[in-house]
Amino acid sequence: MKKTWIMLTSVVVFCLTIAILVAFLVNRYDDYKAHMYLIPDGYVGWVEVEYDQPGYPELKQEKSALVYEIPPSGKLITSSPNASGPVTYYYVLADGTRKSIPLGENAMVHHFGTSSSSTLHGDGTTVHTPQTVKFFVGTTEQLDEAQRSKP
Q: Is the pLDDT higher at 130 or at 78?
């Protein structure tokens, strides 16, 4: 009887441990999303995404990826928060099909970065700059030209 009780207790503890671990991993997975940037075909220039902006639409979701439909201006504003995760880039052709944007040796995406800030003024007010992701789409030559022509 004592052996049965010990075995039953061990099984219950094991099952509870597994359940807690699964719950933790599922919760962490929800915070870790893939990011899919859909950029108009032929677009060359800076892409900028501002997060957490009330009154703007949330990012769409396609399977487990957040979808960034970049407008022709290159600037997207969303009420969604930023999240960690892998990133993919696609040109969206006129017929709606997607063409992968190269990375690596022939990269067409450069200087991916995130920024935000807060400034405390002497009167006690604080001005927050929203969290922003910014990157350049184009060849290295086009990036060099864009950087030379910055105001």
A: 78
Going from the C-alpha of 42 to that of each of 4, 26, 92, 107, the distances in angstroms are: 70, 38, 9, 15
Q: Residues 35, 70: contact at Cβ < 8 Å? A: no
Residue closest to 50 by CA, chosen among 146, 114, 121: 114
d(CA 98, CA 38): 8
Query: Do residues 42 and 36 make contact, with C-beta atoms less than 8 angstroms apart?
Result: no
Q: Which amino acid is residue 17, in one-letter code?
A: T
66, β-bridge pairs: 35, 61
Integer Cα distance of 8 and 58 in angstroms: 48
What 8-state DSSP symbol labels residue 55? T
Average pLDDT, the chain: 82
Kindly give the pairing relationship between strand 126-137 and strand 45-50: antiparallel
Please state, in angstroms and rounded to a whole number, the distance separating the CA atoms of residues 45 and 130.
21
Predicted confidence at residue 127, as pLDDT, reads 79
